[in-house]
Design a protein that fits this description.
single chain, rod-shaped, Putative mobilization protein, MobE, 0% strand, 212 residues, 2 domains, mainly alpha
């Protein structure tokens, strides 16, 4: 190894590659530089800088790839977290809606049950009141004397509905129908409840007709 290569090695801090030495001598021969020319110091310095800076693009590209990969992973984590959050929120909303619908259905069924129980109790009370009046006085009650009909069932219903408590049947039936429809404006009413509502409406109309 000559003095030029030794100086170049000392400048680089490592053994120069064959390509670097070849490029250095190619410049020397092209410019016809002597071995003791001071231009060598400048050429070796420039060559060392070229060798050093030629590595930067690859290093920068590598770091860019690392940063991009980290950003991709971070974005993926954020998207995954937001997706899970959205799914959790959606599941919670669906659960709350389902619970609300279930509560409305249960309340509707409860109102229907209470309505029919009240109607049954009122009819039973009217029957007991009518029977008690007949047994006590030996005569038909005064509220049954004005009805004109040949249908026995209609006569019995008319007597019960015209009893002092009978007017509560259409009142309670109408109230149950109104409350049920009002509380289920945004919920689809199932078929059994619809049938029950229709029966209550028909019962209310029939009771009002018999009372009048």
């Amino acid at each position: 190894m000559d003095d030029i290569e030794s100086s170049f090695k000392a400048l680089l801090g490592r053994q120069p590659s064959d390509k670097e030495v070849e490029r250095l001598y190619r410049v020397k021969n092209a410019l016809n530089i002597r071995d003791n020319d001071a231009m060598w110091m400048i050429l070796m310095a420039l060559e060392s800088y070229d060798t050093l800076y030629s590595k930067y693009p690859a290093l920068i590209a590598g770091q860019v790839d690392v940063v991009i990969e980290k950003q991709r992973e971070l974005i993926a984590e954020i998207v995954d977290a937001e997706s899970k959050k959205a799914l959790s929120t959606l599941s919670s909303a669906v659960a709350q809606t389902s619970q609300l619908v279930a509560m409305k259905v249960a309340d509707t069924a409860r109102w229907q049950a209470w309505g029919w129980v009240c109607v049954g109790l009122i009819a039973f009370g009217a029957l007991c009141l009518t029977a008690g009046f007949i047994l006590g006085s030996g005569n038909m009650p005064f509220w049954a004397s004005t009805h004109q009909s040949s249908n026995p069932l209609e006569i019995v219903i008319s007597i019960l509905m015209k009893a002092p408590v009978g007017w509560l049947v259409p009142l309670i039936s109408s109230a149950v129908v109104i409350v049920t429809l009002a509380s289920n404006r945004q919920v689809r009413i199932n078929k059994p409840i619809i049938i029950s509502l229709i029966m209550m409406v028909v019962l209310s109309i029939f009771c009002i007709h018999t009372i009048i």
